[in-house]
Specification:
The complex is a heterodimer of chains A (340) and B (387).
Chain A: H1 2-10, H2 26-36, H3 40-53, H4 58-70, H5 74-87, H6 92-104, H7 108-121, H8 126-148, H9 156-169, E1 181-183, H10 222-244, H11 248-253, H12 267-279, E2 284-297, E3 300-311, E4 315-327, E5 330-338
Antiparallel strand pairs in A: 1-2, 2-3, 3-4, 4-5
Helix pairs in contact in A: 1-8, 1-9, 2-3, 2-4, 3-4, 4-5, 5-6, 6-7, 6-8, 6-9, 7-8
Chain B: H1 2-7, H2 23-39, H3 43-56, H4 61-75, H5 89-107, E1 127-132, E2 137-144, E3 147-159, E4 176-179, E5 184-185, E6 196-199, H6 205-209, E7 218-220, E8 232-234, E9 238-240, H7 242-249, E10 258-262, H8 270-291, H9 295-299, E11 302-307, H10 313-325, E12 330-341, E13 348-359, E14 363-375, E15 378-386
Classes of the chains: A alpha+beta (340), B alpha+beta (387).
């Protein structure tokens, strides 16, 4: 169980993959795509081609390490990530991945050291902290096994398989960002919100492109913010879905008690107006795009997006901001504004 | 939260200066240091300490458990000693008891007095062993010119059900005065007994008289995958760590070394020494009464319920009167006398000696054992036989 958590978190590290690639880096982009399609041999070929021109490139080497791991070539995967930690000691991700690979081999001492290095480079790198907690739990359970002669039901073999399945089945995101600002896109883009620098170009079908990880250690609980962003984006989609389904009950339930109805309306008057407006059209379709989440703290975030409203009688496109607050574990809307 | 780990154990203890310098003592002190560090919220120090213990002895299960807790505490708050998920409660409890026993041992001062049970050692007895079952401790004393002097002590395990064995299978360790009967080396034993075994003389004459039975009470080592066992773990044997058994074994003399097992050691004092003098005087009186051929005075040293195991007082007296009537002179010498008060029975003392008997028509040398008991202020012999 412990390991499962560990590896699903580890999945968060594929991240450097999502990091931007200059135009001439077609090979690397292709390699990335092939890798995601599970075509590992071809991906490896592309990466190697790319590396001939740029043998030091961190992203390419990182991808190569992932491909090795996916091919169950753990020694080469370890060598690759170890090389990255030597050439780019400021990057926590290679350390983290090394830790996951070591853990998969049951070598928890080495896994622990790697994670400690990741944390030394980025003291607030949440993934490494969480992984380290899991490593400690795993080491504890080994000690308990020896102390109490417990049944050793979870073998290393199982762990390893879990690693490989988990590490690559998830979409990736970067835990490194200049600001705790998270940009997400609706529609066909991956659901997981990549944390990036402010300059974001979101294209419908292309992978999310962002600037490369900064060398400056800038991380401030980014993983946490990324999680919150994901939650808020999800809540916003639910809100749009309830509206689109003309489910006014569900729609209204997403507004917090302290939500201030516009135009000085009472809550009940506003609710009646909303119900009437939602009921009137034969169909409603709400679309969300260019969503940006700004996290204030773990219970407060606001999301700004372009809202497309398509109903039988009216189409419109407008900018909208929803302020969300987490109340009793549920995200609720506390304010709604049109325009930026 | 981590400090609760320990508050459940005991403690306000200070670390004393190390007593003794054995490797086992170091293990125990290391463990105490680690637990002490936990108490002071220095979990890093605590972990380093158990890690170094485990480097030496990876089979030190208690240290493994503490290590488990210390690591787990880094992963999530823990609320109890032995926070292993799905841990078998009895095993955690066992290790908790071992932690308690070892911490108490570390706090224990090195004994300066002599235990009450070693009134007199014979010159042949180079060492004596005294076990305190309540303290999970075996003490080794050296005979220095007739005076027992503390040498070292060892953590031990006793019977699952504690002490005071009565019947076979009760999983208790007997209390009494015993001797090392033999030595079984590792190659004659299964791995379970570790580095060797020293069978003890349970049941002794007093046990048999009380109808106590069972057999196979040994001092022995631990299996190869185990550094130490919990305080109550055996079926009645006294179990030591293998290196401790080897160390102890180098001092044991088969057929000679006494092993006195007490539930709680009483230490000798002034009154005790007065009592010892009184008994020694009475023993000398018994010898001289015998040598004087005053048969009635001689027989007056024997209690009404005296027995040799097969012969009771009237039959014994009749036979002695018959024998003594044929003597014109008797000489009795007692050599290598040892005197051991019985730990579980007040006013009972085991006396052993080499008897050198000489008379006009018979000479004889034998090892003799007597049990003397004080009743109504008077020491009397309740058992006598060949040792």
């Amino acid at each position: 169980m412990i390991m499962f958590k560990l590896f699903s978190r580890a999945a968060a590290l594929g991240l450097l993959l999502a990091i931007s690639i200059p135009v001439q880096a077609d090979d690397l982009q292709d390699a990335n795509k092939l890798f995601k399609q599970g075509l590992h041999a071809q991906a490896m070929e592309k990466v190697n081609t790319y590396l001939v021109a740029k043998p030091k490139d961190a992203q390419a080497r990182f991808l190569k390490g992932l491909i090795f791991a996916e091919q169950a070539n753990i020694p080469d995967a370890i060598t690759t990530f170890t090389g990255l930690t030597e050439d780019y000691p400021e990057l926590p991700e290679p350390y983290n991945n090394l830790a996951v690979l070591y853990a998969g081999q049951g070598n928890y001492e080495k896994a622990k050291s790697s994670l400690e290095m990741a944390i030394r480079t980025h003291p607030s790198y949440a993934t490494a902290h969480e992984n380290l907690g899991d490593i400690y739990a795993k080491m504890a359970s080994q000690a308990y096994d020896r102390a109490l002669q417990l049944d050793k039901s979870n073998t290393n073999t199982q762990t390893k398989l879990a690693l490989i399945r988990e590490l690559f089945s998830k979409s990736v995101r970067t835990p490194v960002a200049a600001k705790p600002t998270v940009t997400a896109q609706a529609g066909s883009a991956p659901a997981t919100a990549p944390a990036t620098t402010t300059a974001v170009v979101a294209a419908a079908s292309a992978p999310v492109v962002a600037q490369p990880a900064q060398t400056k250690p800038v991380v401030t609980v980014v993983a946490l913010d990324a999680d919150i962003s994901t939650e808020v984006l999800k809540a916003t989609k639910e809100w749009a879905a309830a509206w689109s389904a003309k489910n006014s009950k569900k729609y209204l339930a997403l507004y917090a008690k302290e939500f201030k109805a516009p135009d000085g309306l009472s809550r009940s008057a506003w609710e009646a107006q909303r119900k009437a407006r939602i009921a009137a059209p034969k169909s409603i379709q709400i679309g969300i795009s260019e969503a940006k989440v700004k996290v204030s703290d773990e219970k407060h975030a606001s999301i700004t997006f372009r809202q497309s409203y398509r109903a039988s009688h009216l189409n419109s496109l407008s900018a909208k901001t929803l302020d969300w607050a987490k109340v009793d574990g549920q995200w609720l809307i506390v304010a709604e504004r049109s325009g930026k | 939260m981590p400090s609760r780990l320990l508050s459940l154990l005991l403690l306000s203890f200070a670390l004393p200066a190390a007593a003794g310098d054995s490797a086992s003592r170091d293990m125990e002190l290391g463990l105490a240091k680690s637990l002490h560090a936990v108490r002071n919220n220095r979990l890093d120090v605590a972990l380093n300490e158990v890690d170094s213990l485990l480097k030496i002895n990876p089979n030190f299960k208690l240290a493994q458990l503490v290590r488990g807790d210390l690591l787990m505490a880094r992963s999530k708050p823990i609320t109890d000693f032995g926070a292993a998920p799905n841990a078998p409660l009895d095993r955690v409890q066992d290790l908790r008891e071992e932690a308690n026993a070892r911490l108490q041992r570390v706090q224990q001062q090195q004994p300066v007095a002599m235990p009450k049970y070693l009134w007199q050692l014979s010159p042949k007895q180079k060492y004596a062993v005294v076990v305190d079952t309540s303290k999970s401790t075996l003490y080794l004393f050296e005979n220095v010119n007739g005076e027992p002097r503390y040498v070292s002590d060892f953590y031990i395990s006793v019977g699952k059900k504690g002490a005071d064995k009565i019947v076979e299978g009760d999983q208790k360790t007997p209390l009494g005065v015993y001797f090392v009967n033999s030595h079984l080396t590792r190659d004659k034993l299964t791995d379970f007994y570790g580095s060797g075994a020293y069978p003890l003389s349970y049941p002794n004459e007093w046990d048999k008289r009380l109808g106590r039975n069972g057999y196979g009470i040994w001092l022995h080592g631990t299996p190869s995958d185990t550094y130490s066992r919990p305080p109550r773990a055996s079926n009645g044997c006294v179990v030591l760590a293998n290196n401790d058994l080897t160390d102890l074994g180098s001092h044991l003399q088969v057929g000679v070394t006494p092993v006195i097992i007490a539930s709680q050691i009483d230490w000798s004092d002034e009154a005790d020494l007065t009592e010892r003098a009184a008994l020694l005087k009475e023993i000398e009186q018994w010898r001289s009464d015998w040598a004087s051929r005053n048969t009635e005075a001689y027989l007056s040293h024997y209690a009404h319920d005296f027995s040799t195991g097969s012969v009771n007082l009237p039959a014994f007296a009749q036979q002695k009167r018959l024998v003594n009537s044929g003597k014109t002179w008797i000489k009795v010498k007692m050599n290598n006398v040892s005197v051991f008060p019985y730990p579980s029975q007040p006013n009972l003392v085991v006396v052993n000696f080499e008897q050198d008997y000489d008379s006009n028509n018979l000479s004889n040398r034998m090892l003799k054992r007597q049990y003397w008991m004080k009743r109504d202020g008077r020491w009397q012999i309740v058992y006598e036989g060949a040792a």
